[in-house]
């Protein structure tokens, strides 16, 4: 196939412009992104070769190699992983398939300062394109495992890229960066320095399960001689395999490959945990919480889970997968193991490493596996109890968590009846009782008025809509607190949660929710009511007849203080907001 020239897709072009003229101070992360891609490619090849024994691929020494060249001012990151076909290169590297990119770009343009912009990029993830922060030309040479021809992709990041077929590419992918000349004098961006590379790999990629090696710089011939002459008689000498004087020097392995989840918490720094999180989640921001969990005994496993600090843009789209990876005895098995986390915790990221599963487990088998189910139950409990702990010990983190993920967690009230109580305890809501802060059900109950029996709430589209509702008047007048529920999911879960700690949840927009205090009214008040009922009987009958197609019943109420009338539904009926939700869902 001839060399083809392609234009970048508009969104890709805009993103690249931002990378090229990068204002982001932390350029080092490009290397993390490239190593992360290489590591993913190695994982994929290993799994592929397990699945397909006829695959013509070499899996004997899977690794990542980094090769700095000071003279040429290039840096190459190479892997012998799964590689890409020509079509895949065009599809994966030439376009940005991620659905949120357009949104990212528009928000980047609105971003007021650098740190917001950086945060946004972190939230959406930039991956391979981050190479253009440090390089003015990027070349990628790749050959897909099992295929005979390779592909060479090259771009300066401006405008377009070229793609050509190459005959002699080794299996896997090499990314060759031509480092920006303007950074040449800057120590901070000296990506040909072995010292710098060691530092970055240690910092960001230490836990990568494949060896990340650095090719030694080609030293002058005499240096090699001296270095080898100086090698003490060690194991190598004993084996009699001392390399000949002409053999190339050994590459250096830069990462420890230690599984962080297998180490005890006090041995591992927060930063190390955070880097693992970033690798798994493709997020650039630190997580909010790190949760460690291990089980010994008959079914042994270790787990590290993370609560992100920010909801991804696609939290509610079908594409949002769950980010818990499954390992078996340190070997990566699969991403997004949905058998391990319920949908309402789909934002949880992390690793579960089990000792006694087969390396060939499939997703279907996992769904049925009793041990996996036990594990899942424990993970869920642990996540919920961690959030509970955050509420009291790290209030700010909890507030962030709830703002970002509360809407999703509440789905659990419907879908996970076993944990309903635990979930209710970590919920918090807007309320008429406090304009600034959210209130938990426990707090609500604690400040209930004397004689108040129920927990009152009202659902609606927004706080203002609820506050302007005539339903609220009497409650306000009597100083009764009402929870303001404005998330779409609120319409649904309230139906599944009849009570909290013996207190019934009642919608103030529904028929039964007359004020508690009514029952304690004296004889006089009752007589007064009776009198009013008689007085208005004729009007009520007339209204009832006129509105016969619109309403079930017209009655007098004590719930209004200012408005003349309001519409209520019977308890158990579909509320107007729920009707519109159903309509939105096409039901
Ligand atoms: P992400 O890793 O989040 O998917 P990237 O921009 O980092 O996004 O990479 C885009 C895609 O390009 C990857 O998903 C992968 O399919 C492909 N890719 C990138 N680097 C490699 C590599 N070294 N080997 C094989 N495929 C790669
Ligand atoms: Mg990537």
The side-by-side strand order for the widest beta sheet comes to: 1-6-5-4-7-3-2-8-9
What oligomeric state is this? single chain
Query: What shape does the CA trace take?
Result: elongated
- What Rg do the Cα atoms give? 31 Å
Please mark out the parts with pLDDT under 50 across 5 or more consecutive residues, or reply none: 223-240
Query: Which bin fits the share of residues in helices?
Result: 25-40%
Structural class: alpha+beta
Biased composition (Acidic residues): 513-523
Protein name: Chaperone protein HtpG
Function: Molecular chaperone. Has ATPase activity.
Pfam family, one: HSP90
Please characterize this protein's 3D structure:
It is a single chain. By secondary structure, the chain is of the alpha+beta class. It is built from 20 helices and 20 strands. The protein has helices spanning 10-20, 29-51, 86-93, 101-110, 114-124, 194-205, 221-229, 235-238, 270-281, 363-368, 370-393, 395-409, 412-415, 420-426, 441-446, 463-467, 473-477, 488-493, 523-546, 576-584; strands at 4-7, 64-69, 74-79, 135-143, 150-155, 160-166, 172-179, 212-214, 252-253, 289-295, 301-307, 323-328, 331-334, 349-354, 429-431, 434-439, 455-459, 482-485, 499-500, 503-507. Helix 2 (29-51) packs across helix 6 (194-205), helix 4 packs antiparallel against helix 5 and helix 11 (370-393) crosses helix 12. The longest helix is centred in the middle third of the chain and has 24 residues, at 370-393. The two termini are 51 Å apart. Homodimer. This is Chaperone protein HtpG. ATP binds at residues 33, 37, 79, 84, 98-100, 123-128, 173, 363.
